[in-house]
Design goal:
heterodimer; A: 426 residues; alpha/beta; four-stranded mixed β-sheet; 18 helices; globular; B: 277 residues; mainly alpha; 12 helices; membrane (chain B); MetI-like_sf (chain B)
Chain lengths: 426, 277
């Protein structure tokens, strides 16, 4: 994108003009702006309906629905925060909050939220939005990575179908994908355009940790045995066994769907919410099912970055904003939001709702995985975005494509990675 | 220089291949816009939808205020184009005609500005517009677009001005025309194609702009088309492909039409003055 020096000059001139700052938004009654990132039709409808219900029952505290966009949300919010024009109630993802929380842009919700909401959401979910001593967002929706499988293909092959109670081990998973492969078909298609979060989050199932916080609070990268199980499995499937399609390694999740529907791959590992696209796009009669991701020494554990609701530090009516969040996240409402986004609610009561326990579209498998979800390993590691972009993404891409071996991968993740992280921890 | 028949065939074949390459994204967008969801997930996609549908267009219009957003884009882009041309034209005349240090400095400034990191501008710009109470307003966005388009407009128009022989203005002066009369009656008509091309360039730039609009416009009724298009995209780039393609196809049409009109003039404007006569 082009930039313009004249714009800077204009900016400086106008700054020198010293115009007055903006005033309050209130006109007798409180008005709160709620920026939602809901984008699927049902999800937008659910959000708007809830805002309407709130406004109907709270005439003194009006909420305005503002449609946000996942695209560039970080830059958009950062600009709005810097300019003192941020929305009062902010929808985002927990892995985007650290900078805003440490930057003082978000309100600490510790004393603003009611006990009902605090106790309804498990501690492990709160950890995704806890930075230092404060809580800077309410985690409310999350999605595990699951295996979406061609049910007919699996049945005909005679392999054991895994369940959340008895999942595949990573070794068994590798054997099965190999068994399902051959004659131009693959047992699995890994969409690894973004290999870091997929690898790290799934590695929790094998006891991987990668980031280790020392007694001095500093974080270092150690790529140990437990961290290596998932990448080695994927590497072997794509390179040695020929059971993973090599062409999808650089693809996004949606890109694998045509091949999946066309019978080229038996399984694709995708986020739980992809089921909506599958329902929409699958050919008539296509028989699919949701399977849990493989388990290791850590069981079915995997990392997630939940969607969150936060309150801007500049919001003059934090108590009212928190009350709206509480309303939005009452169990029945949380269920509506979860159904709209095809995701799992974090709240225990919402999660027990029969609508989310049905076997249709794999809901029951997803809800069974909810208790195994933990904060993504890098949630609170400062410098993680740079480590991910400059070190881990290219290193993992090269490893999965076979360009480098495990030793080189380890060297780069640890040596190059620790140099990057050290800069953020001086 | 004469070319042989086989060479000409080769040239036209290469040109045709290049045109097909350029048209591919647009034609694919058009095809996708008319496909039902099940065809979007096909392993063997076809250019012509087997079961064409208008549902994607219906859904796009139902879900997002596309017409309103298009109107906002149109107002912002038109206003930006007009204002940018009004400011850039006299500036370009001075830069092209006066070979002073100031004119050279302005030209240098324009060149340097092309490489200036965009992201550094947005926060101070936001603060200024906030103080001017122009956040979440189309005039505020127009101001940004004008500033954004001005350097290239100035550069482009200066080329056109240089192409007008100074002798024509001198002849008009000899005939007794004053400075203003010379500019209005002699120079301006000759600059007209360049002014139109520059204006349309500014229009297209503003019509397609996304990030400023995303940051500066907060309420749905003020948002422009590129911002509304992103509402069809979810986290991690997952997209509601059918409605997105339908909306993007509609959003592309004005740019294509405008560009079809101006492309020859833009090329002419860039090349004007490149060779000494």
């Amino acid at each position: 994108m082009r930039a313009r020096l004249p714009a800077l000059a204009l900016v400086l001139l106008l700054l020198l003009a010293g115009c007055s700052s903006g005033g309050t938004r209130d006109d007798g009654r409180i008005t709160l702006r709620f920026q939602s990132l809901a984008w699927q039709e049902e999800s937008v409808e659910a959000n708007k309906a809830l805002v309407k219900e709130w406004n109907a029952t709270h005439p003194d505290i009006r909420v305005e629905y503002v449609q946000g966009s996942w695209d560039s949300v970080h830059d958009q919010l950062l600009t709005a925060f810097e300019g003192g024009e941020a929305p009062d109630i902010i929808h985002d993802a927990s892995d985007d909050l650290a900078d805003f929380a440490y930057g003082g842009y978000l309100a600490d919700l510790t004393d603003l939220l009611p006990a009902r909401l605090k106790s309804d959401i498990p501690r492990r979910s709160w950890e995704t939005t806890t930075f230092g001593d404060g809580v800077y967002g309410v985690p409310f929706l999350q999605e595990p990575r699951v295996l979406i499988a061609n049910a007919k293909w699996l049945r005909q092959s005679g392999v054991r179908i895994p369940t959340p109670e008895k999942p595949w081990s990573w070794a068994e998973f590798r054997r099965i994908t190999e068994r399902l492969s051959g004659r131009g078909k693959y047992g699995i298609a890994w969409p690894l355009k973004e290999p870091v979060s997929a690898t790290l989050n799934l590695s929790l199932s094998t006891g991987g940790q990668l980031f280790h916080r020392g007694a001095n609070g500093k974080v270092t990268v150690r790529f140990g045995e437990a961290d290596q199980v998932v990448p080695r499995t994927i590497h072997a499937q794509a390179g040695t066994d020929g059971s993973a399609s090599p062409t999808t390694l650089g693809s996004g999740g949606s890109d694998t769907l045509p091949g999946f529907f066309g019978g080229r791959y038996a399984m694709v590992p995708l986020g739980f919410s992809y089921r909506q696209q599958i329902v929409q796009q699958a050919p008539k009669g296509f028989d699919w099912q949701v399977l849990p991701a493989p388990a290791g020494a850590g069981g079915l554990t995997q990392g997630v970055s939940p969607q969150t609701l936060s309150v801007a530090e500049d919001c003059p009516h934090k108590k009212e904003a928190a009350a709206f969040i509480d309303f939005l996240l009452r169990p029945p409402n949380m269920v509506r939001l979860a159904l709209g986004d095809w995701m799992l609610p974090t709240g225990r009561q919402a999660l027990s709702d029969p609508a989310l326990r049905t076997s249709e579209h794999g809901w029951a498998t997803g809800t069974a995985l909810a208790e195994h979800l933990r904060p993504a390993p890098a949630q609170t590691v400062r410098g993680y975005p740079e480590w991910k972009d400059k070190v881990a993404t290219p290193a993992l891409q090269e490893y999965y494509s076979g360009a480098i071996g495990l030793g080189a991968l380890r060297e780069r993740l640890e040596e190059d990675g620790n140099l990057v992280l050290a800069r953020y921890q001086r | 220089m004469r070319t042989s028949a086989p060479a000409r065939v080769g040239q036209y074949t290469a040109l045709l291949a290049y045109l097909v390459f350029l048209a591919f994204p647009f034609l694919w967008l058009l095809s996708t816009a008319f496909k039902p969801p099940r065809e979007l997930g096909s392993l063997h996609p076809t250019w012509i939808p087997k079961d064409p549908t208008l549902d994607n267009f219906r859904q796009a219009f139902d879900e997002q205020p596309l017409l309103h957003a298009a109107l906002n884009s149109l107002v912002a882009a038109l206003a930006a184009a007009v204002v940018a041309v009004l400011i850039a034209t006299p500036m370009a005349y001075v830069v092209a005609r006066r070979r002073t240090r100031l004119a050279k400095a302005v030209t240098g400034w324009v060149v340097v500005s092309q490489a200036f990191p965009f992201v550094l501008l947005i926060i101070p710009l936001f603060l200024v517009l906030k103080n001017l109470r122009m956040i979440n307003s189309v005039p505020g966005l127009v101001l940004v677009y004008v500033v954004w388009a001005l350097p290239f407009a100035l550069w482009m128009l200066a080329g056109y001005v240089r192409a007008v022989p100074p002798e024509l203005e001198e002849a008009a002066a000899v005939d007794g025309a004053g400075r203003v009369r010379t500019l209005v009656s002699v120079t301006a008509p000759l600059l007209a194609p360049g002014i139109v091309a520059t204006g349309l360039f500014a229009f297209i730039t503003a019509w397609n702009e996304f990030f400023f609009a995303l940051v500066l416009l907060k309420t749905p009724e003020k948002q422009t088309l590129p911002v509304v298009l992103t509402h069809f995209i979810g986290a991690e780039g997952v997209a509601d492909l059918g409605p997105l393609a339908a909306a993007a196809f509609l959003a592309t049409l004005p740019s294509l039409v405008v560009f079809a009109i101006i492309q020859r003039r833009i090329t002419g404007g860039m090349l004007t003055g490149a060779v000494k006569s």
